[in-house]
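Hi R.,

Here are the chain sequences for the assembly we discussed:
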Amino acid sequence: MSNIRDDLKKAAIFLFTRKGYNGTSVREIVEKAKTTKPCLYYYFKSKEGIYLSILQETLEEFLKILSQNFGEEKLVSNQLKELCFSIYEKFKEKKDILRLIHSIFYGPPKSAPKFNFESFHKVFYETIIEKINIAIENKEFFDGDREAMAFCVMSVFNGVAEMEIAFPKKYDYKKLLDKTLSTLFEGFSRRKK
Amino acid sequence: MSNIRDDLKKAAIFLFTRKGYNGTSVREIVEKAKTTKPCLYYYFKSKEGIYLSILQETLEEFLKILSQNFGEEKLVSNQLKELCFSIYEKFKEKKDILRLIHSIFYGPPKSAPKFNFESFHKVFYETIIEKINIAIENKEFFDGDREAMAFCVMSVFNGVAEMEIAFPKKYDYKKLLDKTLSTLFEGFSRRKK
DNA sequence: TAATATTTATTTACCGGTAGGTAAACTTTT
DNA sequence: AAAAGTTTACCTACCGGTAAATAAATATTA
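And here is the predicted structure of the full complex:
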């Protein structure tokens, strides 16, 4: 098994996630991986190549989570919570890479090679809105604007993730996510005027 | 009036916001500003200097908005909307720089010189939570977790801003912000069980 | 006010260091 | 012997930064 390839990837993740794409040099990567430059070019073709391969791998892991089931029988608010918790767990596991992806996705357009992370957002949003439709049909949620409601859920999740990126260890973010979603769903729940 | 200083700043903004800090070279900046390198070093001391001066200026503009008043007499939900709209307008005006700040704030720690944008978040959050306290006292909002409610509002605002950054011109984001806040506040509003 | 001295602004030409990338030789595995 | 993997040594281009000379504006003095 060629572990040079893996060593290169690990080293690249370590450096890209700390110094960004432009802030990391090929020399640093190969040095950390205890190998030489032509090896990196042998396995990944270019600096851009190793970078994109890291991002692609991560994207796929997240899409996999969204394709899972989240207990169709339960209350939608609980399904949505579980969905968010699952993604949150993966997020914590890959926090560094996600910080990198985040800063590229929302960052200056030419600060790094283009990588389309949009598909994750889209699938995430669609998954949420489907569940909200069900909740409104079941009269679990009040009959509000469905897009707006889904947008709230997604934004809250993003908000927690960003907080954890910006201020790690400052709060218990799992708890914050739980609490905030609970409050949001309490607001969405159907009550009489 | 030395307009070389201004030209340098404009050129730097143009390039930093498109290519990031590490992706932009001092040579490019002075070339675009139609001057020479020692001039940049004369006015700003270093690449980091011109960069930080741009960020600092922007931060101050945002803090200024938060120190304004937003109609104490009105419904809190409307005050919060106005607050968000005001910040949103400034955001749109300085969208490029905010994208840059965002990607640095949430990005790899060593991808650019440190700049503390935390103060804006803090003041924004505190402003929101004050208003929510009032709304709950007035029985305009139900008596939920105040931190969670404030977090929802802030997240929704961030969500819209990020959408606009990632997918400019795809939607009417002012409308999205309006609609989403309305739905959120409808959820927060006090109704009988 | 005119000439001079001083400070401020700007340019030319350069520094050592490092960037991404590769040709070509060598070693190991198949 | 052929293929795959790895190394040494090198390429050109560019990086951030600066010394020193010069030009323009301002202050000082006769």
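The first helix of chain B runs from residue 3 to 19. Chain B touches chain A through 53 residues (CB under 8 Å).

Let me know if anything looks off.

Best,
T.
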